[in-house]
């Protein structure tokens, strides 16, 4: 079935897909019939334990019953009004109550839109033009962010996307992740509007910030009057209710959110200090608008998801799954005498074979990607779906119970023994 659909898709879409990483599943992507809990069910009749989880949003697993009920209730009332609804207030209040830097919020429709707007806002607010970003950090698919980006841009080796004017490329300054010296030198010599960073890298596999990195960014940006932007599209509500900024206790000026705050429906948000956010139209002169901004369906799914995170042990279950699986992998790879490293934080991790440590994108690029893909392919045959790229994150959810963990560990044992 998937093969037949794939042939039709190749006639319709560039490379057969509508987002490039999906084509990394070889020889063709499986097509999904339904998702439930930790599982995907394919049109070919296969059941897969899902560690991709929509590339991050589904921290409660697929079709969480409470979120589903709330979405259904909202659908009965219509799904687009073109005027404000109570749901946007509820979601913004939830975000403000948990995310330390969030005094005010603007909702948009994707993480891409959120970082694009945060960058515009930083420029409008500081009256400076340049942005500092980090090699391998991914901030979505717009012009200002597609320089040495992670995720599919790295997987397909598009380190500078076609179609971006040189004048725009010249406004982006690059540093390596965890390299504070480069940041300081750049801030000293250039007029930088904002430093945008993934506080934990989740688009080059998982890469953690060194102990003083985020703090260092905070101090340096303050010293040089440049804004610190945390791109928490992955980490927001994943590392905990207060995101990476709460986890590491470093408070940025602006925060971009997406993924989990929409509960699996399209969403993005820019949050931050009132005096900065108020520069957006209509109260200020930095323009943003959107037909689907704060649409009630995404707002509802987001509120429901956060309610479950607030009131259940969802994080404990998801974190435990990631810990137990990565501990087991650690033991398996050690027994094989492989050189490897596993980076994990809360419910996100990734393994890198052939390297001892991965602290920036260059390290990640040295990992044995062929072996990673081989493991991915063998696991898929055994009913376990990890991302089809070394440069993505293995996510767990509150639906990854002990039974699901055991199925997974069994599959990993078989696969690692075969390699
Ligand atoms: C996924 C992601 C984005 C882009 O979000 P989209 O909703 O896919 O546009 C931006 N930043 C980070 C850190 C992401 O992981």
From TrEMBL:
PROSITE patterns tied to this protein: AA_TRANSFER_CLASS_3
InterPro entries: 4pyrrol_synth_GluAld_NH2Trfase, Aminotrans_3, Aminotrans_3_PPA_site, PyrdxlP-dep_Trfase, PyrdxlP-dep_Trfase_major, PyrdxlP-dep_Trfase_small
Pathway of action: Porphyrin-containing compound metabolism; protoporphyrin-IX biosynthesis; 5-aminolevulinate from L-glutamyl-tRNA(Glu): step 2/2
Enzyme's top EC category: isomerase
Entry's localization field: Cytoplasm
Its EC number(s): 5.4.3.8
Keywords from the named record: Cytoplasm, Isomerase, Porphyrin biosynthesis, Pyridoxal phosphate
Gene3D superfamilies (UniProt xref): Aspartate Aminotransferase, domain 1 (3.90.1150.10), Type I PLP-dependent aspartate aminotransferase-like (Major domain) (3.40.640.10)
Pfam families per UniProt: Aminotran_3 (PF00202)
GO biological-process terms attached to the record: protoporphyrinogen IX biosynthetic process
Gene Ontology molecular function terms on file: glutamate-1-semialdehyde 2,1-aminomutase activity; pyridoxal phosphate binding; transaminase activity
N6-(pyridoxal phosphate)lysine, modified sites: 259
Signal peptide extent: none
GO cellular component: cytoplasm
The protein's required cofactors: pyridoxal 5'-phosphate
Catalytic function, reaction form: (S)-4-amino-5-oxopentanoate = 5-aminolevulinate
PANTHER family in UniProt: GLUTAMATE-1-SEMIALDEHYDE 2,1-AMINOMUTASE, GLUTAMATE-1-SEMIALDEHYDE 2,1-AMINOMUTASE 1, CHLOROPLASTIC-RELATED
Family: Belongs to the class-III pyridoxal-phosphate-dependent aminotransferase family. HemL subfamily.
Name listed for the protein in its UniProt record: Glutamate-1-semialdehyde 2,1-aminomutase
Organism encoding this protein: Sulfurisphaera javensis
